[in-house]
Amino acid sequence: IEAREFTGTVAAVFETDLGFQAAGRMIRRPVSVGDVVPRGTVLAELDPADPENTRRAALAGVTAAEVRLETAQRTAERVRELAARGIASVSKQEVAEQALSAAKAEQDRSQAVLLKAEDARSFATLVAPVNGVVTQAFAEAGTVVSSSQAVVRLAGTARREAVIDLPESAIEALGRNAAFDIRLRSSPTIRTSGRVSEIEPVADTATRTRRVHLELADQPEAMRLGALVLVRLTGGGEQIVSMPTTALI
Question: What's the pLDDT at 18?
Answer without folding.
Answer: 92
